[in-house]
Amino acid sequence: MENTQGKTNFIRNIVAEDLKEGRCKQVITRFPPEPNGYLHIGHAKSIILNFELADEFDGKTNLRFDDTNPLKESTEYVKSIKEDVKWLGYDWDNMCFASDYFDEMYKRAILLIKKEKAYVCDLTSDQIREYRGTLTEPGTESPYRNRSIDENLSLFSRMQKGEFKDGEKVLRAKIDMSSPNINMRDPILYRISHTEHHNTRDKWCIYPMYDFAHPLEDAIEGVTHSICTLEFEDHRPLYDWIINECEMENRPHQYEFARLNLTNTVMSKRKLKSLVDGNYVDGWDDPRMPTIAGLRRKGYTPEAVRNFCREIGVAKASSIVDERMLEHFVREDLLPKVPRTMAVMKPIKVIITNYPEGKIEMLTAENNLDDPNAGVREIPFSREIYIDSADFMENPPKKYYRLYKGNEVRLKNAYFVKCNEVIKDDDGNVVELHCTYDPETKSGSGFKGRKVKGTIQWVEASNAVPAEFRLYEPLILDEALKESEDENKSFLDFVNPNSLEVLHGFVEPYVKNAKPQDKFQFVRIGFFNVDPKYTENNKLVFNRIVSLKSSFKIDKK
Ligand code: ATP
Ligand code: MG
């Protein structure tokens, strides 16, 4: 059997073993997001794990919306989650909603009451917390714990009919208030919330809690391996208790793995939502966000995200992954795929004084040296071009090989030019460079005369296409956050104020008709994506996906 995950992991080993030993016939997994925000790269790890396990072993994966908290959920989020899972390259067998099972869950709750395994409790949420005890002290039993079955049935039915206010009563499991596992100390199963639900509208005013709903959802769908993140490890005894006591026919098992954390960002929908709501970013799909929608808009590819998730693997131990590792996979994926063209982000005009006025010459440029099939294109050249002001210095340091007065450089795909004169405005700003070119030095002509050490990119002025370049830096200043000892500060105090730089320059005419989400390598600068939000008919906006190089190396074991 092909292992599409590249390497094995403990969950895959369990699945393989269960199939081999006949403990399950077909593996069924699910990806169960709560539709209370957009998916992030951490979710991608879970999506890839669940879908690829099923793919590899001819199983099935459901996309299930865990929509049990109507206060925070919406159809906007349902829509974006579907789009993101598809974009990552996965297709679910069934699309399910926890809310589709509310009737079934209600019945199972009644079964628990009838078995004296659940009771209606009138304690307030503060009291419930107090009675719960601590890690070192046992809890105290609720005075409502020994209500009769009939009283519980009647009260639960009245809860469901809407006779009580939010928070007035809850349904609790009757397990063990002195259990060393706090999750087993009579956890809440149902709460009252007079809130309209995105699916069931006003049908219900009681909603099941995650710990009650989740195992039932899994069992109803016939999930065999219910994979979740480590923080649910202590909930597993409760998961098993619910499956048992609710007498579910299918008996799914829960397995936990470490969630993905990345440097220089935050990875929780709640925190991401506060960045959106606080206008720190321009929406869930801001390219600085670690959301799937943000990464897509920035220009990341599904292949890169998948390769990254496969490489980090699935383990039991928590860790923080360097975001540069994700960038490494983006670079690796884009390098052979996208055309190489020229752009100047901070233009400065160059006049080639010995080049005939009015003449436009077409030069040939390779589209991508890493892709033999990418072919060549024609680029115009004339007496007036733009170069990037970053490639010129008035007072260069030693070993500066780009342009300065008296120095000669190669214009990529074109000629050698030498700078003779620097033109300034009244304020002393450099506005124009006067250069001469050497016709003998045309690229591809085999010129062997002298050598120059610097090669710079350029764009012919009369055909240059104006463009906006949006350059992104990490959103959260990790080091400062780590070092801060001020407990009153939140991650919002460490949002990088310089996470976006906007520049206006030019791209070569080849790029003129680019469509949103088209990707380019701008030579010597980086990989760029046509921004789908700000690009208009006559306005090209590029997001920098990633720079060309990084000092970061990944271990190839
Ligand atoms: P968040 O705190 O971001 O809201 P969550 O766990 O509450 O995360 P869910 O919508 O419940 O979000 O998550 C759906 C699935 O994705 C769950 O199985 C969850 O364990 C998994 N998941 C969430 N975050 C990560 C992460 N950082 N790494 C791996 N898996 C994750
Ligand atoms: Mg959550």
From TrEMBL:
The keyword Cytoplasm applies. Residues 455-531 form the tRNA synthetases class I (E and Q) anti-codon binding domain. A motif ('HIGH' region) lies at residues 33-43. GO terms for cellular component: cytosol. Its main location: cytoplasm. It is found in: Cytoplasm. Keywords: Aminoacyl-tRNA synthetase, ATP-binding, Cytoplasm, Ligase, Nucleotide-binding, Protein biosynthesis. GO terms for molecular function: ATP binding; glutamine-tRNA ligase activity. It comes from the Bacteria. Its EC number is 6.1.1.18. ATP binds at residues 34-36, 40-46, 229, 259-260, 267-269. One of its GO terms (biological process) is glutamyl-tRNA aminoacylation. Monomer. Belongs to the class-I aminoacyl-tRNA synthetase family. This is Glutamine--tRNA ligase. It comes from Clostridium fermenticellae. The gene is glnS.
